[in-house]
Specification:
Layout: H1 4-19, E1 29-33, E2 37-41, E3 46-55, E4 59-70, E5 73-77, H2 83-95, E6 100-106, H3 111-114, H4 117-122, E7 127-130, H5 131-138, E8 148-150, E9 153-158, E10 161-167, E11 177-181, E12 186-190, H6 211-221, E13 227-230, H7 238-248
Parallel strand pairs: 5-6, 6-7, 7-8, 12-13
Antiparallel strand pairs: 1-2, 2-3, 3-4, 4-5, 9-10, 10-11, 11-12
Helix pairs in contact: 6-7
């Protein structure tokens, strides 16, 4: 039987350990910033790009995209909001990451997803959009159109990383897709996914009746996701999916 002092020492040690601050995950860091564009490194190979769109209803809106880097290759999810910001992003990737851009994917047809597409065309970077996105983009004036269409799903590569892009159903728009990087457990939800405490936002092209159902399919498909980048606002984890489901539940 242990002596009383020994028990007290063990108990006090456990108490100190239990009350000590746990090691926190590495915080995101800003690796590039101008008035037009910011880039945040979220992990070794996952970055978030942030550009800005001027709107009448919501003012100057920050718009998110994702960069997946594998070795000297990258894939970009959503262009920055305009050609100038896209030019900055492409230049930064080439000169700072010393990588090429294999592809850019527009996750839906709004300009916060493909507003800078012409700059990618100018740099001979292949662009992709789901068939519905390509069809809707062709009806717009002033913006580019993805030069490769896919039906429902496509898998792209950035070095060792696979990027799965998939259409789950209508929500923010009738064409919104989601991108997932399995080995990073990282998702770009685009405008289908809302940040915590966000309002419903622009609903002019939305299907609010099945939005929650669509996100429930996303959650079921990727139950191990750890990092979620929404189309606008702060990143998070699965709680962003849950919040979006709750926000639009009928």
């Amino acid at each position: 039987m242990k002596s009383l002092p020994g028990i007290l020492f063990l108990s006090s040690t456990l108490f100190v350990l239990s009350c000590s601050p746990q090691k926190k995950e590495e915080k995101a860091k800003i690796v590039y910033k101008t008035v037009n564009l910011s880039v945040m490194q979220l992990s070794d190979d996952i970055y978030q790009h942030i550009s800005y769109k001027d709107t009448e209803s919501f003012g100057k809106v920050p718009c998110n995209g994702m960069i997946v880097k594998g070795g000297n290759e990258t894939v970009i999810l959503d262009t920055p909001a305009n050609d100038k910001s896209s030019g900055e992003l492409i230049s930064w990737i080439q000169n700072s990451l010393h990588a090429k851009v294999n592809a850019v994917v527009a996750t839906h047809f709004h300009d916060d997803s493909l507003g800078g597409l012409k700059e990618f065309d100018k740099n001979n970077i292949p662009s992709y959009g789901e068939t519905k996105t390509v069809e809707l983009a062709k009806k717009q004036t002033g913006f580019g159109v993805p030069n490769h269409a896919f039906n429902d799903t496509i898998t792209l590569n950035a070095g060792k990383h696979k990027i799965l892009v998939k259409y789950f159903g209508e929500g923010h728009t009738k064409d919104n897709v989601v991108a997932y990087v399995p080995d990073q457990k990282a998702m770009f939800g685009g405008c289908l996914i809302k940040e915590i405490d966000a309002t419903k936002g622009y609903l002019g092209d939305a299907n609010i009746h099945i939005w929650s159902q669509t996100v429930e399919k996303v959650k079921a498909q990727y139950p191990d996701v750890k990092l979620v980048i929404p189309g606008h606002g702060e990143t998070g984890g699965q709680e962003l999916l849950d919040y979006t489901i709750k926000l639009f539940r009928q």
